[in-house]
Amino acid sequence: MNTSYVEIPRLSRIPWLLHGFGTAEFSESDLREVAEVRALSPVILNQVHSASIHKIDKVPGKKLSGDALMTRAAGLALVVKTADCLPVFLVDEAHSAVAAVHCGWRGTQKRILEKAVREMAAAYKSDPGSLLAGLGPCIGPECYEVGRDVRDGFAQAGFAATVFWQSPTAPDKFLMNLREANIWLLETAGVRRGNVFSVEACTRCRPELLSFRRNHDTTKRMYSFVAIRSRG
Hints:
With 232 residues, the protein is α+β, with helices and mostly antiparallel strands. It has one domain (5-138, 190-228): CNF1/YfiH-like putative cysteine hydrolases. Helices cover 24% and strands 28% of the residues. It is built from 7 helices and 14 strands. The protein has helices at residues 9-12, 28-37, 105-109, 112-124, 148-156, 178-188, 212-215; strands at 5-6, 17-22, 41-44, 53-55, 68-71, 76-82, 86-92, 97-103, 132-135, 145-147, 164-166, 173-176, 196-198, 222-228. The protein has a 6-stranded mixed β-sheet with strand order 4-5-8-7-9-13. Strands 1-2-14-6-3 form a 5-stranded mixed β-sheet, with helices on one face. A 3-stranded antiparallel β-sheet has the order 10-12-11. A hairpin with a 4-residue loop joins strand 7 (86-92) and strand 8 (97-103). The radius of gyration is 17 Å and the shape is globular.
């Protein structure tokens, strides 16, 4: 894995697209340096574990609160910050549109990724069956133990039971597959599984990645970005 950020080969073949899933070595200052070199303006949300999505066509006048950004404007780097949660990029090749989505368990339970697919369809006429999805590193299921309340909340939200299984540590604990829960949301929204590309890496297991569960650091985050190349 690149010590700075990792790319998904399928997305790297799109001429107008720039993207990267940052590692622990890729700080906000590194992000801004990359953005400056490539004539990009980073847009960083105040992430609040919501289902709130912002459609933008320029740098906002103030910092927005929410957990997803979408645009067709060139020169904007849509940023997701994570340290166990799942960063997801949605790419519409036909209409040159992108989205960046922060998928923690709360946002996933609120079905934010499914909502993002539907909002791209409404705003940009994106065909869900043609969308590409890039999934970055996140905590793996063997390392992601949650309580019965989380499992029951997902069941009430309509998720497939297969994204959870019994934890070996306690009868009221469960292991959650955050990545598969979001792939299930993509498929529910009409995205073809063959168009879903993943960086298969567990943040808790890989020392070059940041993990809140491993390090209990409330401040450090990895920075991932997706952008339409600046036409300037």
